[in-house]
Amino acid sequence: MATFLYKTGRFAFRRRGLVTLLWLAVLVAVGLAASTAPPPPADTFSMPGTESQQAFDVLKEKFPAASADGATARVVVRAPAGRKLSDPDQKPKVEGLVAALAKAPDVVAASDPFQTNAVSKDGTTAYAVATYKVSALKLTDEAHDGLDAVLEKSRADGLTVESGGDAVKVEAAMGGAEGIGILVSAVVLLLTFGSLVAAGMPLLTAVIGVAVGSAAVTALGSTLGLSATTATLAMMIGLAVGIDYALFIISRYRAEMSEGRDRADAAGRAVGTAGSAVVFAGLTVIIALAGLAVVNVPMLTKMGLTAAGTVAIAVLIAVTLVPALLGFVPVKVMPRLERKAIYGKPLTARQQRKADRIAARRGPNLGTRWAQFVVRRPLLVLAVGVLGLGALAVPAASLQLGLPGEGTMAVDTTQRKAYDMLSESFGPGFNGPLTVTVQAKDAAAAAGTVGKELAQVKGVAAVTPAVPNAAGDTAVITVVPASGPTEHETEELVTTLRGMAGGIEADTGSEILVTGQTALFIDFSRTLDDAMLPYLGLVVGLAFLLLVLIFRSLLVPLKAALGFLLSVSAALGAVVAVFQWGWLADVLGIEQPGPIMSTLPIFMIGVVFGLAMDYEVFLVTRMREAYVHGAGPTEAVVTGFRYGGRVVSAAAIIMTSVFSGFILETNDFVKMVGFSLAAAVLFDAFVVRMALVPALFALLGRSAWWLPRWLDRLLPNMDVEGEKLNRQHSVTIAKGGPAAPHPAHRREDQHDYSV
Q1: Distance separating alpha carbons of residues 659 and 149, to the nearest angstrom
Q2: For the segment 646-666, what is each residue's pLDDT rounded down to a tens digit?
Q3: Across-strand partners of 513?
Q4: Secondary structure of 59-91 as H, E, C letters
Q5: pTM, entire model
Q6: Do the Cβ atoms of 351 and 337 come closer than 8 Å?
Q7: Which of 16, 58, 43 is nearest to 437 (CA)?
Q8: Of 385, 258, 354, 274, nearest in space to 322 by CA
Q9: pLDDT tens-digit series, residues 134-163
Q10: What's the CA gap between 179 and 182, in Å, rounded?
Q11: Going by DSSP bridges, is the β-strand pair 401-402/125-132 parallel, antiparallel, or unpaired?
Q12: Alpha helices (H) along 394-436
């Protein structure tokens, strides 16, 4: 692996113009494809194999007219205090509202609440449903403005009017997530490298990778059903790993140049060593993301595969475009003092004084001192780290899962106000009705019997009369629960109704299915719960095998997996405390704390596992490299931190800042994912990898690298640490190449930037 990547990096460096043009051509091609592609579809849920999805499929087949994808708006009207909507001076206002709705742009029909019995028992509240001829995605600004104008006119008449449904425009404020992440990353890179060129290169390559990935998602969006949220999450992951991967390769290149290597050879060795770590770290992320396909939820599968594709692009850019760009500025990426030495120019008096001060401060760097502290007190560090993460994980025991809806929107939105008005006047279950399909030869008669049986069930507030289809072989019953859509009692009711179906089917000769948005969400959560263990087994198992290949050890992958469980549990606990309990809600702009989205835990596990293995690979490969070259176990830990501690810390800060920027987004799922990933990276990088990992290495000693001999003979040698390169390529300084660094720069920590 190291030899192949060495040749790749050297080729890219020497043929930098060709490699750069190829990537620019790819960027232009996908950009043109994206610019001509139809707009991406809205986020949708489908659950293959569940009862809810089976019932939805029946409805599409048996009630084709009702399965049209036209948008709807449910307009809720309330009379002034002390009045009723049926009063002579109020009823004309409601009728005028309905008439105005029917004439609004793109509206096909609007129901009259007085004719559809959509008035509350106390006569104060009613609702009208406006049906549009196009889907919510295709609604124009004119249609949205028309609906808003109707609402404002009725409000001016003294009515309280709010609206929900997918036809209502959702205000989307720009959070500037990408800009904030890039800005913080730029500052960290500048402090790490001390060079504008070196700091700008990871940002440039990461942006190119994200642009290629995002454009590809947009181009394929309508064809593969990739929504805007899917593209946002792919961009989030791609930006973070793209910066980190370039950071590691540029850091290693600077280290190789500091040792006096030929420029092309330094680029080749940087890609051969740090690039090997990048490839395997990227593979762990790709495995974790692509593994979401085993959950069998199309939305998660699309998210995982698009994010995995973006990571693959980031890896390819790191091992090809990064060395190519280094070829254009082979010396300018170095610190200013070293550039002088490489060019053979004398230092100015001021620069000489600075070099002398650097030489006078010769001694262990921060990474070395931290590693020495940890290996001296491993039990103390281990206890503090485990107990701290354990305390943060405590709130996770109170985790409540749910899916977003109008009931979880901010209280000042019209959708939430309409939701609350319907709950108050018609009951909490009105916002989450269950749809029961009955298939039989005489569906109307069978459905009548089914409706009577279901009306007797505890927790059922109302059952509507059956509505048969034209063929008479299928009928639909609407069951209104007494509890709200997200309440546990509603989930129990769905289970009860489905349990009763078997006995009723035998008596009536029918087939009964329970569905509806609430039932679909319940099935969604159960599917995720059932898939958790198989998913963990697949992802952790494949990543374990990959880490065994990289490190040629059984205990190193094992402790890597255990450390991941600690960090992800602590991150999940933080998510519960903030988004469910409401801690720091005002600070983070969380307007409505509530249940955690059902998709978050499994998605977070997939992404965090991959990112956790990133830092494990980057940090421990340096330890492995030192150990293979003859260092003792403790010395290898210190060496790994001396050369890799600073750059791993910088990479973790960058990734945390990128994810944190997405907390400003208005999309609840993106906001939660950004916070959870930022917290997980922070815990995993600075507690697990930087503290618990060296402490365990110190306690395990040489046994940390133990591998049975028979397994050692079977496993191929991936040579991630570049041992073959050390044998095949001696240190040479080509004619016209860089000279040895200035003596003032020779110090123990001159390789701070290397992987």
Answers
A1: 39
A2: 888 888 888 888 788 778 776
A3: 437
A4: HHHHCHHHHCCCCEEEEEEECCCCCCCCCCCCH
A5: 0.75
A6: yes
A7: 58
A8: 274
A9: 777 678 889 888 999 999 998 998 899 999
A10: 5
A11: unpaired
A12: 414-426
